[in-house]
Fold:
Amino acid sequence: MTRSTPNFPAHAPAADPDSPRYAIYFAPDANTLLHRFGSAWLGRDAISGEVLEQPALDGFDAETQKALTATARNYGFHATLKPPFRLKAGLTAEDLMDEAVRFSADRAAFEINLVARNLSGFLALMQKESKAAMRELAADCVRDFDPLRALPDDAELEKRRAAGLSSQQELMLQRWGYPYVMNEFRFHMTLSKRIGDDGEREALLHEILKHGAEAIATPVRIDAISVFRQENRTSPFQRLAHFPFGG
Structure:
């Protein structure tokens, strides 16, 4: 896919570690069953910023439920396409918005089907069957928005390495600032933290399947990307703008 892009600076000072972070996500729009389920499950609407009451779960008290979903709640209900990054010094959010407009203008929508699964201890909604269109979208997001990305500092890199990376994941980290991109990409919409206890994880998965049955069974139209912003290290991510495919 060929598109013209502006000449962003190839080299620039590292971004202030306290500056905002941005990410390119697939996030279902506010009027969808999927958005309503995911937002209620996590207890926060990342579009409106509203704190929501989480559904009552069998076998989990409210405090445990809140703890199990805390990290995912901070990021908002989404699937990552371009992982969180800071802008290069001298670039602005407007530069990012302009690139998102260009990126979305000539893309076509497609559909996927979802299933709730265990992903290395996390519970997430994933594709029932992997689609080339999704892999292409994610790879293009990583590649096309990369000229705007400031290089991560050593602390960020070591945080990623602490999880234990394969040699391929280490290459992705060095090239793209994140280990789980390109061939390592797996579409997922996270619904919990990593849960080590098999029984607890299975019980929570049962609740996801019960409360999210209708949303999970409904085909998902991938027809836009969203830019999310985290103002500072302690702020949650919130949707900044939404870019439908085809302009």
Q: What stands out?
A: The chain has nine helices and nine strands.
